[in-house]
Amino acid sequence: MTIQSPDTALVLFSGGQDSTTCLAWALQRYARVETIGFDYGQRHAIELEVRPTLLSKLRALNPGWDARLGDDHMIDLSLISKISDTALTSNVEIAMQENGLPNTFVPGRNLMFMTVAATVAYRRGLNVLVGGMCETDFSGYPDCRDDTMKALQVALNLGMATRLKVETPLMWIDKAQTWELAQQEGGDTLVDLIRFDTHTCYLGERGDAHPWGHGCGTCPACALRARGYEQYVARKQA
Fold first, then answer.
1. What keywords does the record list, in alphabetical order (predicted)?
2. Structural domain 5-175, CATH architecture
3. pTM, full prediction
4. Engineered SS bond to 231: which of 8, 106, 176, 195, CB 3.0-4.6 Å?
5. Is the Cβ–Cβ distance between 214 and 196 less than 8 Å?
6. Is 78 annotated as a binding residue?
7. Beta bridge partners of 165
8. Residue 23 annotated as lining a ligand binding site
9. Does residue 137 have a known ligand-binding role?
10. What is the tens place of the pLDDT at every residue in 131-164?
């Protein structure tokens, strides 16, 4: 595939399904791609453990990707777990809150992620930030919404006198379409890599693999991933 843009990108790469799909998407489009991950005291820290293997396997999947994939940056944002009390940073039961949001919502997390990523991109000379935010199949998090990302892009560029672009390739697609996008960008090999080597489960469980991958099978993240995979398979077979 011919690279569509001379731009260079920094992908927010957690080690989960969405960010891995976004990384493949970016590697198909940008001349140079780097990755950034965050250790914020997340309950599902297993995602950080799978990241290096995922990056190695993505390099092996496509020689062009290997040539374009640059440095990985791991940032300590443990202060998030110190100033928040959520089901993603504490061992508490997942539940809905009085404000209508699940207690898996970590206030300010994506805002901080993008701000730190923009700072690293500035230093590294990268002009596109790629994130897996989505408001089609999501848990209602306000910091995943398109309006939030657009406003943040404006604020970041005003604050740093830059022309950074914020790209969210999953924003308007559902989880079945996210699986389809992975197939489009990297074929069945990438789909299988996402199924068995990424981690999305909020509880951090690996255990035996389901058809859609590893996880507890009951938390909101697993439910979205499983339902999307079932729909993806059904569409392929139709």
1. ATP-binding, Ligase, Metal-binding, Nucleotide-binding, Queuosine biosynthesis, Zinc
2. 3-Layer(aba) Sandwich (3.40)
3. 0.91
4. 176
5. yes
6. no
7. 128
8. yes
9. no
10. 999 998 766 788 889 999 999 999 999 999 999 9
- Segments in 93-219 forming alpha helices (H): 109-124, 146-160, 175-197
Is 13 known to sit in a ligand binding site? yes
Domain ranges of the chain: 5-175
Provide the total of helices (H) and of strands (E) in the chain, helices listed first. 8, 5
The overall average pLDDT reported for the chain is 89
Q: Which helix (H) or strand (E) holds 130?
A: strand 128-130
At 209-222, the pLDDT tens digits run 999 999 999 888 89
76 is annotated as contributing to ligand binding:
no
Helix axes 220-237, 175-197, angle to 10 degrees: 110
Tell whether 19 is in a known binding site.
yes
Residue 108 is assigned to a ligand binding site: no
Q: What does DSSP say about strands 5-12 and 165-167: parallel, antiparallel, or unpaired?
A: unpaired
Which one is predicted more confidently, 89 or 123? 123
Dihedral of the CA atoms 168, 113, 87, 180 (nearest 10)?
20
Tokens representing residue 106 in the block: 């970590």
